[in-house]
UniProtKB/TrEMBL annotation:
This is Uracil phosphoribosyltransferase. It comes from Rhodobaculum claviforme. Allosterically activated by GTP. The keyword Magnesium applies. CDD domains: PRTases_typeI. The gene is upp. InterPro entries: PRTase-like (IPR029057), PRTase_dom (IPR000836), Upp_B (IPR034332), UPRT (IPR005765), UPRTase/APRTase (IPR050054). GO terms for cellular component: cytoplasm. It catalyses: UMP + diphosphate = 5-phospho-alpha-D-ribose 1-diphosphate + uracil.
Length: 209
């Protein structure tokens, strides 16, 4: 990927995102929409996966058919809300190895607090990091640093909503990591929430508020 930031403006993505932003959309619908959008966003973030060919026989003749090359990709979910993107993408790439980075944002400092880290071997793999929200960028920047320490080299970051502050933070800390998102919103509010945003993604997914 050559662009640092790709905004997926596909009408289906934008339509579903608008329903997710709506404060009256209930948790089960929110979760289903996130699953659907995850697969549409996955189409974009995986577009430069390497292909090779395999000799196969169709019912009519032999051909060299394109198949994915290289080791299985790794999908890394930033807990909790990342799991809302993970399941749908895993359906498209069932061969992927899966890892989890447990982080929550300290509400006062907006710094990420780490509580879990379990990832597959990352050397040589394409690594897709998923989290619906890129706000200050502190969580995603920290997660990517941990993954690089664990051996990841070839990373992509996939989110649903990004704030300009988070994009700038990622660009400064990890200019080598392309970001794919459904929307670049206006700004962060005083509490570090994306505006207009959709609220707290984890709470809306799991009904914790
Ligand atoms: O860019 P940042 O300012 O770091 O904010 C984004 C982070 O905040 C949210 O997680 P949260 O801390 O609410 O944890 P949760 O997924 O458990 O709800 C979100 O899912 C990101 O991980
Ligand atoms: O707007 C925001 C910011 C951080 N985390 C969220 O879930 N939402
Ligand atoms: Mg949350």
């Amino acid at each position: 990927m050559t662009e640092h930031l790709t905004v997926v403006r596909h009408p289906l993505v934008q339509h579903k995102l608008s329903h997710m932003r709506d404060a009256t959309t209930p948790t089960p619908v929110f979760r289903q929409l996130l699953r659907e959008v995850s697969q549409l966003l996955a189409y974009e973030v995986t577009r430069d996966m390497a292909l090779t060919t395999r000799r196969i026989d169709t019912p009519l003749q032999a051909m060299d058919a394109p198949v994915l090359d290289g080791p299985e990709p790794a999908l890394i979910s930033i807990l909790r809300a990342g799991n809302g993107l993970l399941d749908g993408i895993l359906e498209l790439m069932p061969q992927a190895r899966v890892g989890f980075v447990g982080l929550y944002r300290d509400e006062a400092t907006l710094e990420p607090v780490k509580y879990y880290f379990k990832v597959p071997p990352l050397e040589g793999r394409m690594v897709f990091v998923v989290d619906p929200m890129l706000a200050t960028g502190n969580s995603s920047a920290a997660a990517v640093s941990m993954l690089k320490e664990a051996g990841a080299v070839n990373l992509r970051f996939l989110c649903l909503l990004a704030a300009p502050e988070g994009v700038a933070r990622m660009r400064a800390a990890h200019p080598d990591v392309p970001i794919v998102t459904a929307a670049l919103d206006a700004r962060l509010d005083a509490r570090g929430y994306i505006v207009p945003g959709l609220g707290d993604a984890g709470d809306r997914m799991f009904g914790t508020k």
